[in-house]
Amino acid sequence: MDKADPNTHGREDPADLAHVYELFATARAARPALPVHLAAAILDDAAAQQPDGTVAALAPRNTREGFGRWRHLLNAVGGWPAFGGFAMASAAGLWLGLSPPSFIPDPVVLAGLDADSQRMPFDGYEMAMVLSEDMQ
Amino acid sequence: MTAADASDELSDDALLRLYANGDRRAAAELTTRLAPRVYGVAMRVMNSHAEAEDVTQEAMLRLWKMAPDWQPGAAKVSTWLYRVAMNLCIDRKRRARGGHVDLDAVPEPPDQGQSAAERMQETARQDALQGALMRLPERQRQAVVLRHLEELSNPEIAAIMEITVEAVESLTARGKRALAAALAGRRAELGYSDG
């Protein structure tokens, strides 16, 4: 049985209301069950009204779209594993170009070119002169 | 931990956000949590299965529509839903009866005589309470149902009914006194011993 309601500041005699509290307890113990067809109708409504998942996104919509374009590009090259391999190959190429190991032949020599800067067809000064003549 | 356990631990706010983000299981969990409570209150207030079903479905529909715009922490989802349901009940009563409660339409509690069957006695008790509830003014009935059948706190009822806590106290106190008067003398009939 319920206790007397403390929110009523003792204005009621609990003995007079005992019967009512007993009936409240009986009613609480036998709450009406949700009809199955009503639950199905509610879930149908929920499915019909459900947003597509972007409306209530935590991030601003345009930011997510921008990120989506990068994701499409990443997927096109094979995803994160392919991107990782690409990055590693780029780093190795850069290292070989800047500081090639001694056992690797110089690609300039292999191409039949002389590495002497004095004999290059256009060094900085001559290139400037050629370009200034072309402008005239 | 199973997915069901995880959803049990989520707040109504979180489930509503999941629903808005396309999670269908969130709708099922919210329906399981909230719809029976709304239906129970609507049944007590409307005294009609059909009306209670309509109110419950409409209130839940408004919840789904509101989900994308819900501000977590601004209010309890259940409080918001109860308020919608109570307002729907009031609207339906007004439309049906031109703003007046028709006491003649309230079914009389069945005269069960001295039935020995426990089930029949319980039904008689529920019918007696429901009949007495239906004789209360609309707002008193809502306050009593929310306080004593749904066991909500007075501040929450105040938020649902958009009145002060003091007004809730007054409504429930007067409602209980009226119920006691309406049910006076029926203790023995309903199988309760005196004392």
List keywords for this structure.
heterodimer; A: 136 residues; mainly alpha; 6 helices; 60% helix; disordered N terminus; B: 195 residues; Rna Polymerase Sigma Factor, Chain: A; Arc Repressor Mutant, subunit A; 2 domains; 9 helices; globular
Describe this structure as you would to a colleague.
The complex is a heterodimer of chains A (136) and B (195). Helix content of chain A is 60%, strand content 0%. Chain A has 136 residues and is an all-alpha fold. Chain A has helices at residues 14-29, 36-49, 61-76, 79-98, 107-110, 124-135. Chain B contains 9 helices and no strands. At the A-B interface, helix 1 and helix 2 of A face helix 2, helix 3, helix 4, helix 6 and helix 7 of B.
Give a short overview.
Chain A is 60% helix and 0% strand. With 136 residues, chain A is mainly alpha-helical.
H/E element sequence of chain B: HHHHHHHHH
Largest interface: A-B, 40 and 52 residues
CATH architecture of the largest domain in chain B: Orthogonal Bundle
Please report which band the strand proportion of chain B falls in: under 5%, 5-15%, 15-25%, 25-35%, 35-45% or over 45%: under 5%
> What would the principal axes of the Cα set say about the shape of chain A?
rod-shaped
Radius of gyration of chain A from the CA trace? 41 Å
Detail the poorly predicted runs of chain A.
1-10, 55-70
CATH domain class name of the largest domain in chain B: Mainly Alpha
SSE pattern of chain A, N- to C-terminal: HHHHHH
Number of domains of chain B: 2
The total of helices of chain A stands at 6
Distance between the termini of chain B: 50 Å
Rounded average pLDDT of chain B: 84
Instruction: State the share of residues found in helices of chain A, binned by percent.
Output: 55-70%
**Low-confidence region ranges of chain B:** 99-116
- The radius of gyration computed from the alpha-carbon positions of chain B, rounded to a whole number of angstroms, is 19 Å
